[in-house]
Amino acid sequence: MSLPTSASAEIGVIGGSGFYSFLDNVTEVEIETPYGPPSDPITLGELGGRRVAFVPRHGRDHRFPPHRIPYRANLWALRSLGVRQVLAPSAVGSLTPEYGPGTLAVPDQLVDRTSARPQTFYDEGAAVHVSFSDPYCPDGRGIALSTARAAEWPPVDGGTLVVIEGPRFSTRAESQWFAGQGWTLVGMTGHPEAVLARELALCYTPLCLVTDLDAGIEEGEGVTMDEVFRVFAENIDRLRPLVADIVAALPRERTCPCANVLDGMKLPITLP
Ligand SMILES: [Zn+2]
């Protein structure tokens, strides 16, 4: 694939519909990958002096529910544009009563409770086992945390995001079980996004906005979709500039382990 030089980026943002308007000098590129097209054409532009590629995770019209998002195509497309660091804002439920709606969190661990999603690029030809003990980029996390503190939105540092298959929300029993394990957040998109980024030697940093208290720890009805969208909408005007500040602060040269995670491995495919 040959692309004009303007069609490149160093940082990828995978986010929701509230992020369209935040890039300057935008162009759109349609990309095909061995895994089909990404969720939608990718918007390329500038932010804080950096070249950024934005992928609307669910598609512009929100047509992909969490279990149908073309995760592999999204990550592959970003890498093919030159992206090496990914910032991933998302809405999550809280399993911790103290972390109410509007809480910002940068988890440091992940538990996979999904069940039907392709979650590797290395399906055949050779076994490739990437290290995933620490699923997120340590440098990206540090910058997200310090930038959020500077923006006077003190984030929760660390914790475990459990990713469920969805699209339904958890039962009370599931939610109580997750909380009982000490897991702090629950979402539907953080996996396989993070592991696919790792498999392409990309840095991946989650930025979680709590929109609700999950069923098991909430009295009353439990979580509803209306509530999730309402809280997300209330916070998007705060989240957008924070994402921009984090993008601007991400390192220009990577010194974290993410870049070298595939060193010495014999890959059955050629990375873009
Ligand atoms: Zn990294």
UniProtKB/TrEMBL annotation:
Its EC number is 2.4.2.28. It comes from Actinomadura gamaensis. The record marks 170, 225 as: Important for substrate specificity. It is an enzyme of class 2 (transferase). Residues 10-239 form the Nucleoside phosphorylase domain. The keyword Transferase applies. Homohexamer. Dimer of a homotrimer. Catalyzes the reversible phosphorylation of S-methyl-5'-thioadenosine (MTA) to adenine and 5-methylthioribose-1-phosphate. Involved in the breakdown of MTA, a major by-product of polyamine biosynthesis. Responsible for the first step in the methionine salvage pathway after MTA has been generated from S-adenosylmethionine. Has broad substrate specificity with 6-aminopurine nucleosides as preferred substrates. Phosphate binds at residues 17, 57-58, 90-91, 189. Pathway: Amino-acid biosynthesis; L-methionine biosynthesis via salvage pathway; S-methyl-5-thio-alpha-D-ribose 1-phosphate from S-methyl-5'-thioadenosine (phosphorylase route): step 1/1. Pfam families: PNP_UDP_1. Substrate binds at residues 188, 212-214. Keywords: Glycosyltransferase, Purine salvage, Transferase. PROSITE patterns: PNP_MTAP_2 (PS01240). This is S-methyl-5'-thioadenosine phosphorylase. Belongs to the PNP/MTAP phosphorylase family. MTAP subfamily. Gene3D superfamilies: Nucleoside phosphorylase domain. One of its GO terms (molecular function) is S-methyl-5-thioadenosine phosphorylase activity. It catalyses: S-methyl-5'-thioadenosine + phosphate = 5-(methylsulfanyl)-alpha-D-ribose 1-phosphate + adenine.
